[in-house]
């Protein structure tokens, strides 16, 4: 029996075309909608297009819209799986937002493409087909939101875009994919160990993301305080350290009860409180900085936005970042 799969097209290269000058642009019609008939043997497809945006135009407002659509389509129409097509630039952020917030026990798969629909070697239709297969698989239930491209299945939590143009751009540093898509089937070889879901009704807070560099001082942190941000994520150096000149600005934020979350700017590994010198991870923790458990900067920022919609209690936020 074919599964009832909701396909949500949101825009991105997967739905764009290359013009004769070589620019990739959205057209008046989404080519994926016309191609849906080729996929109808795989599932009972129900296609919607709530917005059509390049993914650098996507904000938490659109992510929230997708969350509400999925929950409503699950409870009112009994959809059994969801596939979202999305631009690849911010795909991991939308996927992780949905992972942290959607209440619906069905597979949710996010996919995209690196080549637009009329380019040689276009990967969009193929990735959409693989994603429908994953969203229809019983084994995809309870795995959290998944990202499927290039025959690989990644968790929303670990996946990141690693290359500007290569079709194998989506990788899960440190952990790898949790499954693969083959010609014969969908094979999972790992399962996520922890599932979290937060109740939110909207996103209204402001959270900024700062990347540390040699010589970073406190001025940006003072500016963040003056601009009334509700939180900040810092991509720290190495194992979780910052230049000493930045510490005073960070302390000023924490004194104002503004959470400061630390991740590492390193591609692999987890930021931790190891070094005891001024600006070292241990020193930062003693000042009240929150350590994130291996997320990258953009995902820690989204998690902090969601955490702040859920609670203002710094210790509760610290606890949320232990997972
Ligand atoms: N710039 C495009 C976007 O994110 C890239 C893509 O879709 O691959 O919308």
UniProtKB/TrEMBL annotation:
Protein name (database record): asparaginase
Protein family membership: Belongs to the asparaginase 1 family.
Domain L-asparaginase N-terminal intervals: 4-192
Domain of life: Bacteria
Listed GO MF terms: asparaginase activity
Catalytic activity: L-asparagine + H2O = L-aspartate + NH4(+)
Listed SUPFAM superfamilies: Glutaminase/Asparaginase (SSF53774)
Quaternary data: Homotetramer.
SMART domains: Asparaginase
Residues involved in substrate binding: 55, 88-89
Entry EC no(s): 3.5.1.1
Pfam families: Asparaginase, Asparaginase_C
Keyword Hydrolase: yes
Record bears the keyword rRNA-binding: no
InterPro entries in the record: AsnASE_II, Asp/glu_Ase-like_sf, Asparaginase/glutaminase-like, Asparaginase/glutaminase_AS1, Asparaginase/glutaminase_AS2, Asparaginase_C, L-asparaginase_C, L-asparaginase_N
Active site positions, chain numbering: 13, 88
Entry keyword set: Hydrolase
